[in-house]
Each structure stands twice: as structure tokens, then as C-alpha cells.
Amino acid sequence: KPWGAELTRATVRRANHSGDYTRAVSHFPESSMIGYVTLGTNDLPRAAAFYDALLAEIGAKRLMDLGRGYAWGVSMDKPALGIMTPYDGKLATVGNGVMVAIVVNSKEKVDRVHRKALELGGKDEGPAGPRGEGFHAGYFRDLDGNKLNVFCLG
């Protein structure tokens, strides 16, 4: 049975908040360094609509409903991006120097995803284009001010 088939909302909550991460990450191969990245939000419905539309551009969809947030990905055995309201009940804030990079397989997708982020109300932090030899990227901030980029190699 695939990992996601037996996962319940309570199991995800327990894995994410009790320190028992074994079940939550056991589906990743040992060589996988990043399992998921979580960004904070103060407006979950607005952030969810932004990421539903943005990540659909690369074939990602919601994989988990965590009650106070969601996780998107292309499959349960690949890294995911989550948005959550903070566990401690305080306001979500942006980390200075923190950035999430989303990999795609073409310059055209970089351009398309960057453009979509701006159409959805994101703020441009650097236009899509070459950034040195073999690296094509576009930088933006989401509706909560979190910094992301979309990039491809080659």
C-alpha cells in the first residue's frame, strides 16, 4: 500500500507536532535531503488559492489537508511545499534571507510560473532570465511576503 493511502489527518498532525516523524518521512529515499518546506500565512484561504493556481502550472496539486494548512506536490514520494498558520498562534512573519526554490524542466516553465505568480498578485523580486551559465530563474514574493524562485538548469 502506498504511504499516502494509509495516512489520516490525525496521523499527519501527530507526525508534525509530536516529534514522531518516522511515519511522516519514511517514504522518502535516504538520498533525498529535503522532504518538505513550510511557509507561514496569516490568511489561509487567500494563500491556498494563490498556491493552487501557481503550482498547477507545474502539475502539482494539494496532497494534504492539515487542518491549519495544506501541502502541495507532484507525488507523495517527492518534496512538497506547505503553507500553515503558525502552530504557536502568533502572526506568521517572513524570514529575512529565507527563500524556497521550485525546480522545473524548462526555461519556458520558469517564465510561465514567474508570470503566473505576478498575475496572482505576487511581487517581482527579479525577472525570469539567465543567472549565470546554465541557470535560468525568476524570483518573486507570495501574498504573505515569502520569497520564492522558480528555476531550471541547463
Question: How many beta-strand runs?
Answer: 8
Average of the residue pLDDT scores: 84
Low-confidence stretches: 1-28
Biggest pleated sheet: 4 strands, mixed
Give the helix level as a range of percent.
25-40%
- Counting DSSP H or I runs of 4 or more residues, the number of helices is 4
* Order of the strands making up the biggest sheet: 1-4-3-2
* Spatial separation of the terminal alpha carbons: 37 Å
The backbone outline, from C-alpha atoms, is globular
Which band does the percent of strand residues land in?
A: 25-35%
- The structure class reads alpha/beta
Helix-strand sequence: HHEHEEEEHEEE
The rounded Rg comes to 16 Å
What report would you give on this structure?
It is globular and about 45 Å long. The longest helix has 13 residues. The strands form two sheets. It has a four-stranded mixed beta sheet with strand order 1-4-3-2, covered by helices on one side. It has a four-stranded mixed beta sheet with strand order 5-8-7-6, with helices on one face. The N terminus is likely disordered. It contains four helices and eight strands, in the order ααβαββββαβββ. It is an alpha/beta fold and 154 residues long.
